[in-house]
Design a protein that fits this description.
The complex is a heterodimer of chains A (340) and B (355).
Chain A: H1 2-20, H2 25-37, H3 40-65, H4 73-90, H5 95-124, H6 128-150, H7 169-174, H8 183-200, H9 202-212, H10 214-219, H11 224-250, H12 263-273, H13 278-295, H14 297-302, H15 306-321, H16 323-339
Chain B: H1 2-37, E1 46-49, H2 60-74, E2 84-87, H3 95-104, E3 109-113, H4 118-127, E4 132-136, E5 145-150, H5 152-166, E6 172-176, H6 181-197, E7 204-207, H7 214-226, E8 231-235, H8 240-253, E9 260-265, E10 273-274, E11 277-278, E12 280-286, H9 288-300, E13 309-312, E14 319-321, H10 330-344
Parallel strand pairs in B: 1-2, 1-3, 3-4, 4-5, 5-13, 6-7, 6-8, 8-9, 9-12
Antiparallel strand pairs in B: 10-11, 12-14
The chains are: A mainly alpha (340), B alpha/beta (355).
Amino acid sequence: MVPIISIILGLLVGALVMIFSGYNPVNGYIALWNGIFGDAYAIGETIRQISPYILAGLAVAFAFRTGLFNIGVEGQLMVGWFAAAYVGSAFTMPMYIHLPLSLLAAAAAGALWGLIPGLLKAKFRVHEVIVTIMMNYIALHVVNALIKTVSGGGFKTEKIQPTASLRSDFLSNLTDYSTLHYGIFIALSMVIVMWFILEKTKTGFELKSVGFNENASHYAGMNVNKNIVLSMIISGAFAGLGGAMEALGTFGNMTSRGGFTGIGFDGIAVALLGANTPLGVIFGASLFGSLKYGANNMPNAANIPLEIVSIVIALIIFFVASGYIIRVAILRMNKKKEAK
Amino acid sequence: MSKRKYGLALSLVLAASALLGACGTDKDKEKDTSSSTGGNASDFSIAMVTDVGGIDDKSFNQSAWEGIKQFGKDHNMSEGDGGYAYLQSKDDSDYTPNLNALTRRDFDLVFGVGFLMEDAINTIAEQQKETNYAIIDGVVDQPNVASILFKEQEGAYLAGVAAALMTKTDKIGFVGGMEIPVIERFEAGFVAGVAAVKPDLKVDVKYTGSFDDAALGKAAAGRMYSSGIDIIFHAAGGTGNGVFSEAKERKEADKNADVWVIGVDSDQYEEGKVGEENITLTSMLKRVDVAVQDISNLAKEGKFPGGETKVYGLHDDGVALADSRGAIPQDVLDQVEEYKQKIADGEIEVPEFAK
């Protein structure tokens, strides 16, 4: 109930913004709707957009469950992107080795980027928020330098071999030449993996326990430091796979970047919207991904400037995130009625 | 009681959304028929996709859009389907969907503004052979794509000559965006131009790594002006706006401060206004608008240069220096003119790559 009211409220306030700036909100929302679900192409692109969001959301959520705030998903995603693009383009081998290897390289690169803040936290109690933020910048510039090196002074890596690609003619034809790729299945299977680790294994129990109370876990005989490092590694691996979505699916290479992709930071919101549960992340990512992609159609079909669109989308997400306020409001309303 | 109310509200919303959805498809159909019957005076239509800098970046994207608007005006076209339009990219994953959206709206010619769009245009040109594409600052080898390049180094060379003649502190700076071939051409030409006048003067070159971060540009400019540099040439799109704001702040604080900016791509005179004063020395024009109109005209006449690469330089006004509006004295302008002549005559070969 509450999420639905939140979305409606967000849409209403967004409509007010459009009215006050002189645009027709009905046309705007029709454009948004069509941008997300309008035709096969739009649906394909929306799903494509959701895939990396799921993985970024999982990465944040997983670390959260162990009581770690991994803001470094952005950086882990970028090193994963590069690793997948490099392995995907530099080697020639059959697909059943090449594709898994490229994915593995991305996960490993992301894990490595998560390992460093994990170790620093475990060994020296350096707060992971500071380290991961800084690791983002290191990732951005290291990756740019690496792109320059491997491309011999250029600004983008070679296109990946078809044997490493997640794209398929089948999905492409199905969705009218959209860039939809098999990454969504990888993302969804990782959702199951996260659920399995957390709920069905001893390690997962320990990880969660450390998240609830470090001291109690320590007293119970768990190795807290080991769990912190492990959590960051797994979190980083999820993020790295998110980068692989971009490398092996959407773009097929990596271009040197002027700034962050934003996917990693949005991942924080995705995880929070999803209450840090695997299933919740799917919903959070779907909301973020479809709004982000669908919003592009508002300037295209309804002539609403991108700046207004950004405000409207931000409002919708804001209201969804502030579901707590709405819950309190409902509670108050009910109480008043009872008093009468 | 309340639960039932919410249920009612929910079903109302669902009903409304279903209705709206229906409206949507109707509307689209209407639109389709109106554009196919031709509400526009011309049956030729053009559109463009911006790079991440946005349509109002006061340089590159804006210049391309001005060109498209001018072309539309010249041919009695109106903004919208069947006429001319643009879409902005927030992110590099928007290139393909944006190009696709415009293709689907049946524009005859779609411009991709910026080298970053090379891959996206290459892919879509292969899929959509009916539509013509043009890429600015990049090269795509497809029969339905025209590639547009500029000899930025020639214009930058003149800017370098002017800067070297105008500097009082004998210190000059260059603020670049990302270290990519296009921007490196700006740097190479600028440095060569400065060296032609003052061989001992070393240009302070700083790449910010970004085209849309004004704060980075401001920081770089702040450092340069503090180190005694009095003229900065920026080739950094939106990042360059920070160079302007730093210079303007310094001018505001001290009217006699010797701070100048050389603008890029468009005439950035308006950017440099500080009350009565102006800190824009001149701008190196990169006439993306001229190129856009040129290609559009060719396409309209059925002579679209598909598969070709067109290079615009000094000789065909593809690059030039803007009117300095008195900031540069006539004798310096005369000297700049001499160099311009020499380049046009082929007497000076401006290097394309930074040393």
